[in-house]
Specification:
By secondary structure, the protein is α/β, with parallel strands linked by helices. It has three helices and five strands, in the order αβααββββ. The longest helix is centred in the N-terminal third of the chain and has 17 residues.
């Protein structure tokens, strides 16, 4: 019985650790620019964040489809989002990932 509880806990923990949060600011930016992220998109972004975290990144620019996403990799949080026309000078990041 204890093994099943530990396995269930491990599954819940893994699910929580792979979730991506979207800040209120980022959600407003996505909405105002008519950008949306579906579950498949979130899975792609999650994989990219895993890779970036393994390489020691903290704040990253993720270039994905028609948008740029600034994410706090350690907290797995999307901080802000912009469309490709707004990608000019980006500061305060330590890495960039192009998601294909």
């Amino acid at each position: 019985m204890a093994a099943k509880k530990n396995q269930a806990f491990a599954q819940v923990l893994q699910t929580k650790q792979s979730e991506i949060n979207i800040s209120k600011h980022a959600q407003r930016r996505l909405d105002s620019r008519n950008l949306s992220l579906k579950q498949e998109d979130m899975n792609q972004i999650s994989s990219a964040m895993d890779e970036l975290k393994n390489k020691g990144s903290k704040e990253s620019l993720l270039v994905y489809k028609n948008m740029g996403i600034i994410a706090n990799v350690q907290n797995r949080t999307i901080i802000t989002a912009m469309d490709m026309n707004e990608l000019g000078t980006i500061t305060n990041i330590d890495s960039t990932k192009f998601i294909k």
